[in-house]
Amino acid sequence: MAPAAASSRWVSRGLTVVLVLAFALLAAKELVAEPMRIRTASMSPTLVAGDHVLADKVSRRDGGWRRGDVAAFRRTPHGEVLVKRIVALAGDTVGIRDGRLFVNGRRVTEPYTDASQIDSVYFGPVHVPAAHVFVLGDHRANSRDSRVFGPVPTSALMSRIDAVIWPIPPSREGLH
Questions:
Q1: Is 174 a domain residue?
Q2: Statement to judge: residues 18 and 37 lie in one domain
Q3: Which of 7, 12, 42, 120 is catalytic?
Q4: 37 lies in some domain
Q5: Which of 20, 23, 146, 159 is within CB 3.0–4.6 Å of 55 for a Cys-Cys bond?
Q6: DSSP code per residue over 122-134
């Protein structure tokens, strides 16, 4: 075989491998997991502005959302992605009394919040409709969440946030 033909064959194979790898990475990003940057302090101390997290997209397929999950979702008309904690599910009644969260009349223990960052407001109670969840930021005094825009349709939930990948964090409460 001529050297030019062998070289051309290797270039063609190399290009094919690069294209297959690029396609596989793109598919994984769209279907499995995606890195994401936290832009606000509304989830501190669990997540802080500048954290890079891993958004698990597989979890949304089975609809297995649970209270306590930190979820990414599209909420605004221009497609802004928000990250908040799911505190109540469809059928639940949620309220805040003197800054403390109550779901279905029971006070919820929230080890992932900083008590000094929770304002002493009252909210609700409100009923979460079918196919919706109620979300709150962990930094309640500095969070635009379901108290402002109402329950979030489960169809808007994109992924569950499972881990901070950069910077390598000290141990933080709140992520599974």
A1: no
A2: no
A3: 42
A4: yes
A5: 159
A6: -EEEEEPPTTEEE
CA distance linking residue 137 with residue 164, whole number of Å: 17
| Burial class, 83, CB count within 10 angstroms (exposed 0-12 / middle 13-18 / buried 19+) | buried
42 is catalytic: yes
Strand positions, DSSP E, the chain: 33-37, 52-56, 70-74, 81-89, 93-97, 100-103, 106-107, 123-127, 132-136, 152-153, 157-166
Identify whether residues 75 and 53 lie together within a single domain: yes
Contact 119, 99 (CB under 8 A): yes
Query: What does the pLDDT look like over 74-118, one tens digit per residue?
Result: 876 677 888 999 999 999 999 999 889 999 999 999 998 877 767
- How would residue 41 be classed by pLDDT, with cut points 50, 70 and 90? confident
Q: Please give the residue range of the domain that contains residue 15.
A: 1-31
Domain count across the chain? 2
